[in-house]
Amino acid sequence: MKKNTWINLFIMIFILTPFMASAASERGIVKIRSQLDGSTLQKQYSSGVNHALVIGIDKYKSHPNLKTAVNDAEAVCELLEKMYFFRKENIVPLKNRQATKSRIMKELRDLVKRRVKKGDNVFIYYAGHGWFDETFDIGYWVTSEATKDPVTFLENNAIYRSIAALDKKGIQHVFLVSDSCFSGSFNKEHRAVKTDIDDRYFREKYGKPSRNILTSGGMEPVADGGKEGHSIFAYYFLKTLKENRFPYLSGKQLGVAVEAMVTRNSNQTPISKFIHGVGDEDGQFFFINKKSKPGNEAEPVEPNTFSLPGEIDVSFDDIIKNAEIRRKAEEKWGIWQESMGKKFLQVQKIDSDRHVKPKQKEVAWKRFLAAVASDNQFSEKDDEMRSYSKSRISHWEKIKLKKKRKPKPVSVSYSGAKSKEIDRDGRFIAYENGTVLDTETRLMWAAEDNGKDINWKNAKRYCENYQGGGYTDWRLPTINELRGLYDENKGYGISCYGSYKIHLTKLISLTCCCPWSSETSGSSAAFFYFRYGGELQNAQSYSGTYRVLPVRAGN
After folding, report:
1. Burial call 501-532: b when 16+ CB within 10 Å, e when fewer
2. Which helix (H) or strand (E) holds 138?
3. What's the pLDDT tens digit per position in 127-180?
């Protein structure tokens, strides 16, 4: 996201302040009308003590480490204590080594047996790896000490049973937030969200038990990296709560606001639902703001302007007051973004064509970069395309320079096929026919992956039909073969479900983090994570973030 003041202002007005006039969500306008301050509400209507269990795991024993989970958890703890009615002694943080399967269950058991009383409220936040077992239709949290065996993971059903036990204790509200891959496996039922609320609605819903959940995504991987040291989900979750100037904010309103911004700025879709079968009576969890003042008028915002594609500037006052102008702005930028997306795919095809010269590929990307120069204020996809275009321009410029320094490329023959050498990177040699030879292992790799999300079955078929370099004996690599490509001292940036760096030779182009391997276990298959290094498994039917990188024997 750009740092321009007006863009930050735009985000604040339309999305991240759910009590303002509008939020750019398909579910409608988010409003709160209140004449009371948070302290008065807490005294008059509080159903009990607020408890929080906040879990963040960056460091794993047998799984790739994460970068933002602990920072997310620490920020959540600080915000609950500073701005909302959570006392420090009632907030339990578990970070890294503390967040084992047994310790999490111990804290949940302690909540049920000793700490909570009838009428209390419980907030649970988890940031870390998640996993889904397609065979048994079960989701898991991957705790810090977990091995590769799913038996060592913390089953979602264990969390579900803990909430059922809290229900038996007469807990008023439970709000579970899960920022992990496949966290949508918690969700079973859906109910419409009312986003325009007032004090009467607050009293009605706060007085009824609730069991709600907000997940960072559905049944797909979610991004670790995001903004300002937080995951993309955590960034907007925290920002929405921080910028809340009103006395209360429901968990469901929070979900609407977070979903709107996360879906705009990533390929994941947060889900806000109730938890089925554990005592939900159509109530709502509310964050009561102890710093709020009476009244429902937001602070005035200075008018600013932004441009519509090919039209004159429009003021923020017009946008705020005129829903038709807002709709027109979003529609025009949406059409522009779709058009740029099609051009982007065309240039990607040129980039992957081994018959097109590096110079021509460089020119194609430069022309596209000029075409996508306009700034879409409603999305970050154009930013991602510009960033990717610059990386490809740099890539082909380097190859062009390398070729100039090698006027007499070596002609090498493997398995009877000949091709000219075009580049070297340590032990790796790139050839004009779109192959890369590892001179240590004598393996020959495709210079590029397949370029789009793919499940394991189709990845295997892709290799069987692949004829890169004129060869027909390509196959899926083993985990050890993929691990042999990982080099933490090398790498390049990519944009796929977030922007980050992957670590391997620059001569092999991966468009996302995780190529499939040939190794399977039941309905799961192993893949290698080139962002941090390490082997993971997922259901063979899933495709998000996964690629195929064919390999063959080089001699």
Report:
1. ebbbbbbbbbbbbbbbbbbeeeebbbbbbbbb
2. strand 138-142
3. 999 887 767 777 889 999 999 888 999 998 899 899 999 999 999 999 999 887
Nearest to 235 by CA among 272, 208, 261, 268: 261
Which amino acid is it at 285? F
CB 439 within 8 A of CB 429: yes
Residues in CB range of 204: below 8 A, 6 or more apart: none
Rg of the chain on CA atoms, in Å: 26
Express each pLDDT in 74-131 by its tens digit: 999 999 999 999 999 999 999 999 999 999 999 999 999 999 999 999 999 999 998 8
Burial class for 375, CB neighbours closer than 10 Å (0-12, 13-18, 19+): middle
pTM: 0.53
- The two three-digit tokens of residue 470, written as one number: 């004129």
The secondary structure of 68-88, three-state, reads CHHHHHHHHHHHHHHHECCCH
Helix (H) or strand (E) holding 237: helix 232-242
Q: In sequence order, what are the beta bridge partners of 509?
A: 448
Rounded Cα–Cα distance for residues 189 and 441 (Å) = 51
* CA angle centred on 303, ends 297 and 309, rounded to 5°: 125
pLDDT for res 498 = 66
Distance, in Å, from the CA atom of 187 to the CA atom of 189, rounded to the nearest integer, reads 6
Query: Which residues does 514 contact at the CB level (< 8 Å), separation at least 6?
Result: 527, 528, 529, 530, 536, 545, 546, 547
Distance of CA 498 to the CA centre of its chain: 7
Provide the token pair at 265.
């700025």
Does 2 score more than 50 pLDDT? no
CB 428 within 8 A of CB 505: yes
Distance CA 529, CA 513 (A): 6
At 443, list the tokens.
Answer: 């393996």
Categorize the per-residue pLDDT at 417 as very low, low, confident or very high, splitting at 50, 70 and 90.
very low
Among 117, 79, 47, CA closest to 283: 47
* C-alpha span between 318 and 198 (Å, rounded): 26
Kindly report the backbone phi and psi dihedral angles of residue 2, in degrees, each rounded to the nearest multiple of 5, phi listed first: -75, 160
Residue 263: burial class (beta carbons within 10 Å; 0-12, 13-18, 19+): middle
Asked whether the CA dihedral 179, 182, 186, 190 is positive or negative, the reply is positive
